[in-house]
Amino acid sequence: MAEPVIAARDLSLVFTTRDGPVQALSQVNLDIAPGEFISLIGPSGCGKTTLLRVIADLERATGGRIAVNGRTPEQARLARDYGYVFQAPALFPWRTILGNVMLPLEVMGIPRAERAARAKAQLALVNLAGFERKFPWQLSGGMQQRASIARALAFAPKLLLMDEPFGALDEIVRDHLNEQLLKLWAATGKTVVFVTHSIPEAVFLSTRIVVMSPRPGRITDIIDCDLGPDRPLEIRETPAFLRIAQRVREGLRAGHSYDV
Amino acid sequence: MSRAVLPVLTVCAALVALWYLGAVWMNWQLVADAQARAGAAPDLAEMVRLTLAQPRPLLPAPHQVVAELWRSTMTLPVTSRRSLVHHAWVTLSAALAGFGMGVAFGVALAVAIVHIRALERSVMPWIVASQAVPVLALAPIVIVALGALGLEGLLPKAIIAAYLCFFPVAIGMVKGFRAPDAMALDLMRTWSASRGQVFWTLRLPASLPFLFAGLKVAMAAAVVGAIVAELPAGAQAGLGARLLAGSYFGQTLQIWSALAMAALLSATLVGLLGLAERAVARRMGPRA
Ligand SMILES: Nc1ncnc2c1ncn2[C@@H]1O[C@H](COP(=O)(O)OP(=O)(O)OP(=O)(O)O)[C@@H](O)[C@H]1O
Ligand SMILES: [Mg+2]
């Protein structure tokens, strides 16, 4: 196996809050190989965002080890190894769509002419050609989220971290974006770590699904999702798909310790 | 548009009417005494006419102020020491110089406070305390101290104006520079943006609405500061000097026209800032 993009060993993270310590991650062990599409799924508060933020060096683990491309998360961040898509588009309202997508390139000191060309290409990839000069408020929520994906892709990172990027969108738009994301992933061979609440979304997109459970946040199951690279939306009706979805559901249920 | 104009005009008309009533009432005794001394017994209409036409009324009527404004701005050469344009320019130049200095200082202070954690706790209380000192008490001290150093004319006045200016700008800009939410800051961090890049591409644009709010308050304060600073300096020139001279010699018309001029000046400057704000807002994502 090639060197893993992400290797976590006994990773744990405790937030110190005013009401005492909160164990957000506990004993997380996970290897992610290049080109994988990994979904993190689990109930609210199980540490999905926290795990993603540790990978991105937006949060520091308090125990265990984690390597990103064989380096520390900080080194990986400084080397601009990954693109991060937040739950909300977080576009700057005073910049045009093109200006927003060019922003990371600007920060990274890429020449002006190249910036525009690359940003335009990314916008075309997410079907936003022709909207370059619009401002964020002139776009629908789904279009804004697509722009934020284009922004994360603009500097061609090999690793894409996505935190519930389609969580706020309606089902039709979500299906459409899922298809586009899958095509993009197949075409570029990027490694994707994708947080979601939706079982069908996770099964549809992933090569492996990581099931997490709360209090403390830990991995309870890792499910292979070998549906092949070619996945039309109709695949969600097939027995193979439903079997995997059923396994994920069981994994989630087992992790739940609701005393109801 | 016209629906908004009518209520505004009504209120204005009511205020002017009140002012006229006030002028009649305030000046009544003055006129009555003078008429008694002269042995005259004017009727009511004549009394009212006289109360609104006194050369040194307690409260001048609006048309008297307007006439005096016209006379002292339009009928005299602007180089004349009696021209209100000359005095307004003296005050305006000090106010604008002070505004520039105060805004620069206020923004610089805010930049420092936002970037150096320790400054917030150590400097902020002093900034707030500085504004608790009445400028009326401070102005003579500064003018005299700077005068002893040989500094006279525009600069000392500008310093007083700047002293009043920097505060609203600094407070507003600290808030403005902190306006970006955690997600936007995290986003910049994922790109390993430098502090300078975060400042220029995120904090500064996000702070612009706060900047203009601060600038408007500062502009009005700068005019007040420049006028107050003219009072202790022997009152040679400027709107403040006109106010002081007017009160020495009981020239209420002169006082009121200087006050009106100061108000016009402030309103115009704040209005210009409003236009600049609109122009900037249009460039930064025109909405509807
Ligand atoms: N900055 C923080 N300070 C303190 N506690 C935090 C912080 N961030 C997260 N937590 C806690 O850590 C736990 C995991 O949070 P996290 O945001 O990773 O959950 P999640 O799985 O992403 O949930 P959701 O699906 O609702 O987004 C929660 O109990 C949360 O309250
Ligand atoms: Mg989350």
UniProtKB/TrEMBL annotation, chain A:
SMART domains from the entry? Answer: AAA (SM00382)
Q: Which PROSITE patterns match?
A: ABC_TRANSPORTER_1 (PS00211), ABC_TRANSPORTER_2 (PS50893)
Sorted alphabetically, which keywords does the UniProt record give?
ATP-binding, Nucleotide-binding, Transport
Keyword Kinase listed? The answer is no
Pfam families tied to this protein: ABC_tran
Q: Report which superkingdom the organism of origin falls in.
A: Bacteria
| Residue ranges of domain ABC transporter in the record | 8-235
Recorded hits in InterPro entries, A to Z, give: AAA+_ATPase, ABC_transporter-like_ATP-bd, ABC_transporter-like_CS, ABC_transporter_ATP-bind, P-loop_NTPase
The molecular function terms of the Gene Ontology recorded here are:
ATP binding
Which family does the entry's similarity section mention? Belongs to the ABC transporter superfamily.
Query: What name does UniProt use for this protein?
Result: ABC transporter ATP-binding protein
Q: Which organism is it from?
A: Falsiroseomonas selenitidurans
TrEMBL record, chain B:
UniProt keywords (A-Z) are: Cell membrane, Membrane, Transmembrane, Transmembrane helix, Transport
Q: Per its record, how is this protein called by name?
A: ABC transporter permease subunit
Q: Where in the cell is it found?
A: Cell membrane
Give the chief site where it resides: membrane
SUPFAM superfamilies documented for this protein: MetI-like
Domain ABC transmembrane type-1, which positions?
A: 88-274
Q: Where do transmembrane segments lie in this chain? A: 88-114, 126-148, 154-174, 210-233, 253-276
Coiled coil regions in record: none
Q: How does it sit in the membrane?
A: Multi-pass membrane protein
Q: Which family does it belong to?
A: Belongs to the binding-protein-dependent transport system permease family.
